Amino acid sequence: MSDAARERRPELPIELDGTAFLFNTLRLQVKILRTASGMSQKDLGKALSFSEDLVSSIERGVRPTQPDFLNRADDALKAGGLLKAAIDDVEKALAQARKRHPDWFRDYADAEAQALALHVYSVQAVPGLLQTKEYARANFMHWRPLLSEQTMEKRVADRMARQVILEKWPAPTFTFLMEEALLRRPTGGVAVHKEQLRKLLDAGQKRNIEIQVMPINCPDHPSLDSSFTLLTPKGRRQVAYIEAQGYPKLITDQDEVRIFSERYGIMRSRALRTDESLSLIETLLGAP
Prior knowledge:
Blueprint: H1 3-7, H2 13-16, H3 20-36, H4 41-48, H5 52-60, H6 67-76, H7 87-98, H8 103-113, E1 115-122, H9 133-141, H10 149-162, E2 173-179, H11 180-184, H12 190-203, E3 209-214, E4 228-233, E5 239-244, E6 247-251, H13 254-270, H14 274-286
Parallel strand pairs: 1-2, 2-3
Antiparallel strand pairs: 1-4, 4-5, 5-6
Helix pairs in contact: 4-5, 9-10, 12-14
């Protein structure tokens, strides 16, 4: 990848769908209103019950503004309805952006965006919702057959855009169960690997996110197969999603879903506790 490509921020789905002007205007309005009110990004984040990092990401255009953010920010910044007036257009733009996913992924992407609870078991790599940008890029960099630079950056941007679900309110429930081996694999090199471990530690501090590690020395593993996800969409029953070697499947049959749910429950009972899991990640982060 050229230096110019590395420095260029990947386009977000909203930008590639022609709605960039809307989100660019909103991020500038938020920044101007915040500055005029004498608030720092940390102050605004605290007032909205969001992280300082989220406010910074929105103002820099790394993340699109969400309806809930605009609703709260309008009140906190005394915008008089200026930000709230854009909520309908933002909802339409975000819905349009979700349609950019490939046909095979679209059903899952829609379900994920509306999920009340999400439970992810990962075997080979850190779950996409918890990946850093460089870790995601490293995964796509070595994909076979090779991806073009444009395709690779598009996929990285799409993956980062999906992570806005972690900032939703009311907050969905997330549990992530990862095999220890994937945490020991230095994907992207030492620096990228350590940055990824730090992101996992940060995520593990959130009240609605639980991270567990399945230790390598576990003698009784109930699911020596591929990764899978269990999710509960709003107003619908729990479904399961699996993908192996590019062949995805969204499972809605409740008898099949129950099998995955049972496996997940048994694995969680045999995995390290959340505090033990974070301690292991801290140990790996400190390793040379």
